[in-house]
Specification:
It is a single chain. It is built from twelve helices and 22 strands. It is an alpha+beta fold and 521 residues long. An eight-stranded antiparallel beta sheet has the order 9-10-11-12-19-16-15-14, with no helix packed on it. A five-stranded antiparallel beta sheet has the order 3-4-5-6-7, with no helix packed on it. A four-stranded antiparallel beta sheet has the order 8-13-18-17, with no helix packed on it. α8 packs antiparallel against α9, α9 packs parallel to α11 and α10 packs antiparallel against α11. The chain is elongated. The chain starts with 5 loop residues before the first helix and ends with a strand. GO terms for molecular function: lyase activity. Keywords: Lyase, Periplasm, Signal. It is found in: Periplasm.
Length: 521
């Protein structure tokens, strides 16, 4: 059992020279129920709270959940107790925080056999260090100073550094905070130098983050805010490029946000994420060279139609195999959705959510998909809202042309393959929609009294299947998947707001609800 004497910890003069500024702000520290944590009960990532007791088993994994284990060892919940002490002055809360931290330090020495693999995982180290720095503002003890120095050693290790990754940013913030606390200029300079280089690599000149999931644009924006505050508090000059790149993320996130305030569920972006405080761009349509088209009828209108289209470099980091995929939102409703993000658990379902079949894409019949293939944006006309994309991910060229009208709302998608190849257009419907009719290439969708129609040409043979999507972390919802009949060329028209759109078809033109589309878009 660990012994912990509060007055000895606070008053000890045996500690190493930890007398620099504490720049570990509250950013990244979770909201907690202080009374529950004081009783030894914690809850992470929305999972049911767990009784850890006064003496923590650091190998505990009650939910078999990777994110839960990361949060246990990150000790941000301990850091939140320190914040609670600073607000209340309750020394019992500080003593509990110090006791948890000392238990962790004594029970998880680096390199010892039997220690949880999460104890010194690079992201756990990066998230834990600021909490320990925050504690060091009130607790002076050799075990804490030595542990901070060990964290700095790990954070300086080039082989463990995640350049251009959100984990790398957290590593830089942690090293900066420890460097300021120890007044080690070498550490602070390394942290700022790496941070600036990583940001230049990860955030392009348009503000798109290369991690291929807009949700991480939110995270990196927030963490760069913490970083800039820490650099200022450390008394070091703030690199202008860091400020510029952080600001540029705002356009990326705002364009990726639907009119209802939720983020488009692209890559590892939970469908219930709601960004806040990001400035809107004036353009209704924005093409990001990193692989995104975002368009809407107008800003600040919850009834605005909205769509996304994916292309660009092959899958990496938090991206999915979603190239040529589209989403569509109109009349205040989701219509075409992605399978979304479920969790980081290594399950068959998680693997499927990242596959092409979990997205609204053209599938080449009998083709073998090759992961990581880039997709070209061959044509883009933001004024007419027409776009053409192509790749050879199935060994033959598949081409998708998209045209969107906002008066009235119609999305038209043309999928084509050459020669004797055949393609099927795959559509995942929002869980709120049910299929009420499927005849002659017309699929009628209903949400209460509201209706929408999908029209597929050539007509006939549309297949309706049950499906699953994830509306949020660790959540699943039953939905419907629609596949066109196989053909060399498939034209799909999505018409929100009606179950009987007026349509006429000629050899070269399709006219629907008064809007004409060339058969070849």
């Amino acid at each position: 059992m660990f012994r912990h004497a509060f007055h000895k910890v606070v008053d000890s003069r045996l500690s190493l020279a930890v007398d620099g500024p504490v720049v570990a702000g509250s950013g990244g520290l979770p909201s907690i129920d202080v009374d529950e944590v004081m009783r030894g009960r914690v809850g992470f990532v929305g999972l049911p709270a767990v009784e850890l007791g006064r003496e923590v088993d650091w190998r505990a994994d009650p939910h078999r959940n990777r994110s839960w284990m990361l949060n246990l060892h990150a000790l941000r919940w301990m850091g939140a107790l320190v914040v609670a002490y600073e607000k209340s002055g309750d020394r019992g809360v500080l003593e509990r925080a110090a006791g948890i931290a000392e238990q962790w330090v004594r029970g998880n020495p680096a390199g010892r056999a039997g220690v949880s693999p999460w104890a010194w995982a690079e992201h756990a180290v990066a998230l834990r260090a600021p909490a320990l720095v925050r504690l060091s503002a009130h607790v002076r003890a050799d075990w804490l100073a030595r542990s901070l120095a060990e964290h700095a050693r790990v954070l300086c290790d080039r082989s463990l550094y995640r350049h251009g990754h959100n984990h790398g940013l957290d590593q830089d913030i942690a090293l900066l905070m420890i460097g300021c606390r120890f007044r080690r200029r070498r550490w602070t300079e390394l942290a700022i130098r790496r941070m600036t280089a990583s940001a230049a690599y990860a955030i392009d000149d348009q503000g798109a983050l290369h991690e291929q999931a807009p949700r991480y644009g939110i995270y990196v924006h927030k963490r760069l805010g913490v970083a800039l505050e820490a650099i200022k508090g450390c008394g070091v000059g703030i690199p202008a490029d860091l400020v510029r790149r952080r600001r540029s993320l705002e356009a990326y996130v705002s364009h990726a946000t639907q009119p209802d305030g939720r983020l488009a569920p692209i890559g590892d972006s939970p469908a219930d994420t709601r960004p806040a405080g990001f400035r809107a761009d004036e353009a209704n349509v924005k093409v990001f060279d990193a692989g995104y088209v975002f368009g809407r009828t107008r800003w600040n209108d919850r009834k605005s139609a909205y769509y996304s289209i994916r292309f660009g470099p092959g899958r990496k980091l938090h991206g999915h195999e979603d190239h040529l995929g589209v989403t569509y939102h109109a009349h205040g409703r989701d219509i075409l959705v992605e399978a979304g993000f479920h969790s980081y658990e290594k399950t068959a379902y998680r693997e499927w959510t990242a596959s092409p079949e979990a997205h609204n894409v053209p599938i080449v019949v009998g083709g073998v998909f090759r992961p990581g293939v880039a997709t070209r944006l061959e044509h883009a006309d933001a004024d007419r809202q027409t776009f053409q994309l192509a790749d050879d991910a199935y060994g033959v060229v598949r081409t998708r042309s998209v045209r969107v009208s906002h008066g009235p709302d119609v999305m038209a998608v043309l999928d084509e393959v050459p020669g004797r190849a055949r393609v099927r257009s795959l559509w995942h419907l929002a869980p709120s929609l049910r299929v009420v009719s499927n005849r002659d290439g017309r699929v009628v969708l209903a949400d209460g009294d509201w209706r929408a129609t999908m029209i597929m040409l050539p007509a006939g043979g549309a297949e309706v299947r049950p499906g699953i999507v994830s509306p949020g972390y660790l959540r699943k919802a039953e939905t419907t998947t629609v596949l066109s009949a196989p053909a060399r060329s498939v034209l799909t028209l999505i018409v929100p707001g009606t179950d009987n759109p007026e349509i006429s078809v000629s050899d070269s033109v399709v006219t629907i609800s008064g809007v004409s589309f060339p058969r070849g878009l």
